[in-house]
Amino acid sequence: MSETQDQKGYALSLEHLSNERLEVSNVEFLLEAFAISTAHCGDWRPVTVSFVGDPSRDARWIAKPFTGNDAPGFGHSNNYFAISAFAPDTDGVYHRRKKSFAGQFVVALDDVTPAVVEGKQKAQIPFSRVTLPPTYVLETSEGNFQVGYFLREPILDRSEAENLSKSIIASGLSDPGAGGPCARLMRLPVGCNGKYRPEFRCRLRLWEPNRRYSIDELREGLQISFVSATCARQQTFTPLGVVRQPAACAQANAVYMPAPTTNIVLQALSERGLLKREIAPGKYDMTCPWVNEHTDQDDSGAVYWAPDESHPHGSFKCLHGHCVGRGISELLDYLGIEHEAALMKARITTAPGEVNRIVVAAETELARTGVYFQRSGRIIRLSRSTITGNLQLQEVNTNSLLVDLSAVTRWQHFDGRAKRIVPCDPSAKYLSAILESGRHQALPEIIGIARQPMIDAHGRVLMKAGYNAANKLYADFDEHAYAVPLAPTKEDAFKALAELEALLEEFPFDADCDRSAALSAILTAVVRSQLKLAPMIHVQAHLPGSGKSYLTALVAAFATGDEVAASSFPKDDEECRKFLHSQLLSSPAAIIFDNLTTDIYAFKSLCMAITEPTFNARILGVSRTAEASTRTLLFSSGNNVGPVEDMTRRVLTICLNPSEANPAEREFRHPNLIEDLREKRAHFVSCALTVISAWMLAGRPRPDRMKTLNSFMQWGEWCRLPLLWLGRSDPATRLFELMVNDPEREQTARIFEVLSRIFKADAFSVKDVATKARRSGFDDDIFDVFEEAGLSAGGSLDRRRLGWWFRRKNGWTANGIKLIKLPSPSKQIVYRLEV
């Protein structure tokens, strides 16, 4: 009984794969894959290819023979191996050419995925289609795998190997554009995928080198049907001017053709032995195809440049006089490459009735750029400010989409008069459909931007920059600049906290709780993008020059390494709504309201921005709304002003109280503190991350008795409890004090006490209160309570103002007295006070 018969019913799944990267060197992998030695195969050799950078731009497909111990092993390189072995040419040089083919040793499937994305036209082989246990499975990008099978005996007949490749393609187990047994390269386990920024480190997830199969076992196990060469010929780009005819058996898409994954010109030069080396980014030294015409057949002076914005087809130049007038067009003709194919762009062909597939194709190409996302049904683009250098989110409009789509794709349509396919621009119809569809299946969702490493749910610090699909944030930072212990201990947390406290030693905090609140603000600034909600931070002092703005700038430097411009506090809710919405749309690291001259009023928009995860408002000048994330650090400062009314529970206050009569004249031991912090920001941010991570890994300990902030539970765990765990004062002390000692609440309590003495437990209306005051008169000191609250006019109570005041205070409790609105059959509203 064959191994395939033993495995009937098998289908690859994630459960078959290791959750961790399996440590297998490239040398060990190749020795197992080819299982040959020079004694067995003479001068045959497997070959490898290795280079650093993006394979679509920086590729150097130079084959190097593997002799048993010299496989490329640099983890930051694109490391490949050919699935076949090759014989050397007469000069002893190894090439991946058909005439050099010696034998195929590995059968490999690319683009295997556990979850097929609907509408994505590039080959997607579902796990369920892999019906034979693999020898190895290598993850080459997030959720994308290469699956390989080692052969028990190599295929020595090249035509048999080519027919097997064509049969695999025709059976839906490979991209129609995949190369044959001579050109086919697969990735090695130690290496990276340079297509992505940051690069993706390949992960070997399954390794069973003893699993080897015969050709018949592969055909049976993978359900590969033999097809003729005519039906299974490889898919290529359609040249402009040629109408594509329906293919009888090829799985082609008439609307969308993805761009080649490698530079086909470099590959063709390499296969012909014309490629020498890369001499500069995108610039390659090569042998001129017309070297025989050179004086003395001099093999020098020929250069190929990869495509760029100025030269979309690439460029070719040979300095010899015999090659004057020969350029990229002649080189492409020599290599047999269609000029349109050399553009290295995806093709989108417009046709009636294909809007849905055209939209998906366009979004697929936008997603490939790594800078396009979706947020609340709108397409968003990552953009770096030319002034500050900050990464920000920008909503895409029709004009910018037209430019970017034209840069990354090639649009074409059938010209009825010319009877051929011609290039065109994306029409307004398709641009509108892409922008307004609201679904955006191919674009990942984004919430905001993190400007430093993040912490996962288990407390581990994620040192990987780029998009994080788990929390839908884009991390923008230098991976090599940060250093956090792999599993920080409490001792590590104490040391890290001491470094943070050293930054605050010259600030005149009024009490220990204020110093702790400043430390909590630092932690908040570091992880604000990961916190669903967080309180606003306010720095308060009695005198100018106390250091409010300086402390604000210091904390803001933890949120972003660039300066944050201060803004004036809005005068009313409408102004507040417009300002916050316009700012939050770009996902800034921080918003600072500096030098407030009024208290922090409970504007509805400001309250929403603090206690709601998203902020929705109408875009100015456009008749539609847009939703923005509120994961931005909100900061304010002012002299003798602070949160009032419902803002007391939404604002973390830090009080400064210098002892000098004129604190602006103080001299500091570290006058360049902010500049030094920005220079060493990565180190101090690492300290903050160490504190939080250590608390999480310690089991998230909590004090026995602690007041909770129900509105900010996650913030309390990440930015408050770690400080209490390390023995610091409660950073929320001032917040709880203000909630109790809020001037408005105290004023409300005095009015409740007056009404309780007059009406006791009896019901009363606004009219009753005004009549009581008019007939019997309140004592002057009692009447003053109403007057201070603005409820009087002309020496008597204003019933209209009093009515609104009661409506707003319904349900309030102050000093143990609660105002309750009673059900009443009449139109008159009745209240009662309960103790």
Walk me through this protein's architecture.
With 835 residues, the protein is an alpha+beta fold. Helix 12 packs parallel to helix 13. It has 24 helices and 41 strands. Strands 1, 2, 3, 4, 5, 6, 7, 8, 11 and 12 form a ten-stranded mixed beta sheet that branches. A hairpin with a 6-residue loop joins strand 9 and strand 10. The chain is elongated, with a radius of gyration of 35 Å.
Task: Kindly list the characteristics that best describe this protein.
single chain, 835 residues, alpha+beta, ten-stranded mixed β-sheet, 24 helices, 41 strands, 29% helix, disordered N terminus
Could you outline the blueprint of secondary structure elements for this entry?
Layout: H1 3-6, H2 26-34, H3 38-41, E1 45-51, E2 64-65, E3 78-86, E4 101-113, E5 125-126, E6 136-141, E7 144-155, H4 158-170, E8 185-187, E9 192-193, E10 200-201, E11 203-207, E12 212-213, H5 215-221, E13 256-257, H6 264-271, E14 275-280, E15 283-286, E16 302-305, E17 315-318, H7 328-335, E18 346-350, H8 355-368, E19 372-375, E20 378-384, E21 391-395, H9 398-408, E22 409-415, E23 420-423, H10 428-436, E24 448-450, E25 454-455, E26 461-462, E27 466-468, E28 473-475, H11 490-503, H12 512-527, E29 536-541, H13 548-559, E30 566-567, H14 573-584, E31 590-596, H15 604-611, E32 614-618, E33 625-629, E34 633-639, E35 651-655, H16 673-679, H17 681-697, H18 713-719, H19 721-725, H20 733-740, H21 743-759, E36 764-765, H22 766-775, H23 780-788, E37 792-793, E38 796-797, H24 799-809, E39 813-814, E40 817-822, E41 830-834
Parallel strand pairs: 4-5, 7-12, 18-22, 24-28, 29-34, 29-35, 30-31, 31-34
Antiparallel strand pairs: 1-2, 1-3, 3-4, 3-8, 4-7, 6-7, 6-11, 9-10, 13-18, 14-15, 15-16, 16-17, 19-20, 20-21, 22-23, 25-26, 27-28, 32-33, 36-41, 37-38, 39-40, 40-41
Helix pairs in contact: 11-17, 12-13, 12-17, 13-16, 14-15, 21-23
